[in-house]
Design goal:
Elements (H helix, E strand, L loop, with lengths): L35 E2 L6 E5 L27 H14 L5 E5 L9 H10 L3 E6 L3 H5 L1 H11 L3 E6 L5 H8 L4 H14 L2 E7 L6 H14 L12 E4 L15 H5 L11 E5 L8 E3 L23 E2 L3 H9 L9
Parallel strand pairs: 2-3, 2-8, 3-4, 4-5, 5-6, 6-7
Antiparallel strand pairs: 1-10, 8-9
Helix pairs in contact: 1-2, 2-4
The chain binds iron/sulfur cluster.
Iron/sulfur cluster binds next to helix 9.
Length: 325
């Protein structure tokens, strides 16, 4: 289905990425030591349930679609091994996050949720709230009855207007999402919403638009709250961005401990792989230089910020670093 292209902030004629950047993990293009992030405390373990999704969104950072199975469905048994490792080694993980693709397409998801919740972890599931969730709603209700608000779901809504949401997500994606969202709210689930900052609007405009949507649908979500409505910047790895050197932390006044990779890791199962592997975060699922090993014990080392997403999504946030090149 041909989709009209929505104007993104990145559709601004910015330069293509200099291919000499992000080559050497040790140093930047200017020969400065590349920034690293130490694991301060492993608080959240993300499980990628597989890259397949029931829809195909414009600009999906993980390129999920009904055909992309580069990340296979992880199994309940494989996830349980990581929960065993957390408990066995006394790691300080408090939250297990599930992301995809669309997590509810993985048949093992209800079992994985049950396993994590029954061991006392908080659980967060990122979902589009469409048919795959709808088909599992009885199991989901039963899990909520057993575990209450230890289970939270974050629903992706790309825009507060149906037409713009569907320009990103495809035709007929609004009504099934609203059906799922309203069902989750009516059942008393703990829910939040994720949207994009890619539109030709200010953050204030976007939050005001979502406030109208939440009020109109009777949802008790605060669009002014960064926790209730999480807004993510666009991620375009082809756009030219500065590299991040160790000097950048001071120049920018950014604390490495605030990066996702200071408190998180993500497990993925690559198609055809014998075992899952651990990555530093949810943002770099395909770049093999970020593979840290098969166990959490293998994945406690510092992370070298050798990817454009490290700069644009995590460190710079629109600022610039003169030491970064
Ligand atoms: S994108 Fe880079 S800086 Fe951001 S969390 Fe992942 S590894 Fe860390």
């Amino acid at each position: 289905m041909a989709q009209a292209k929505v104007r993104h902030d990145t559709d601004n004629g910015s330069k293509a990425l200099n291919p000499a950047k992000f080559r050497d993990p040790a140093v930047t293009i200017q020969g400065q030591p590349r920034a690293r992030v130490a694991l301060a405390r492993l608080e959240t373990l993300w499980i990628n349930t597989g890259s397949l999704c029931n829809i195909e969104c414009d600009g999906c950072y993980i390129e999920s679609s009904p055909k992309n199975d580069r990340l296979a469905y992880i199994t309940r048994q494989e996830v349980a091994a990581y929960l065993d490792e957390i408990e066995g080694k006394g790691l300080p993980v408090g939250e297990i996050g599930f992301t995809g693709g669309e997590p509810f397409m993985n048949r093992d998801l209800p079992g994985m949720l049950e396993d994590a919740l029954s061991r006392g972890f908080r659980v967060l599931v990122l979902t589009n709230a469409m048919a795959p969730l709808w088909q599992r709603r009885d199991e989901l209700s039963a899990i909520r009855e057993r575990h209450g608000n230890a289970l939270a779901l974050r629903v992706s809504i790309d825009h507060y207007q149906p037409e713009r949401h569907e320009l990103i997500r495809g035709r007929d994606t609004w009504a099934p999402m609203v059906r799922g969202l309203e069902w989750l709210a009516a059942e008393g689930f703990s829910i939040t919403v994720a949207a994009r900052l890619t539109w030709d609007e200010t953050e204030a405009d976007i939050r005001a638009g979502f406030a109208g949507l939440f009020e109109g649908r009777g949802l008790s979500l605060d669009a002014g709250s960064a926790a209730d409505l999480v807004l993510f910047p666009d991620m375009d790895a082809t756009r030219d961005v500065p590299e991040i050197s160790e000097a950048c932390w001071n120049v920018l006044g950014v604390d490495p401990a605030d990066m996702m990779c200071a408190t998180s890791r993500m497990v993925v199962k690559r198609r055809g792989a014998a075992a899952p592997v651990v990555l530093p975060c949810t943002l770099l699922p395909y770049d093999r230089q970020f593979e840290m090993g098969e166990t959490l014990a293998d994945a406690l080392n510092p992370v070298t910020l050798n990817h454009p997403h490290c700069a644009t999504f995590c460190v710079l946030g629109g600022a610039s670093c003169s030491g970064g090149g």
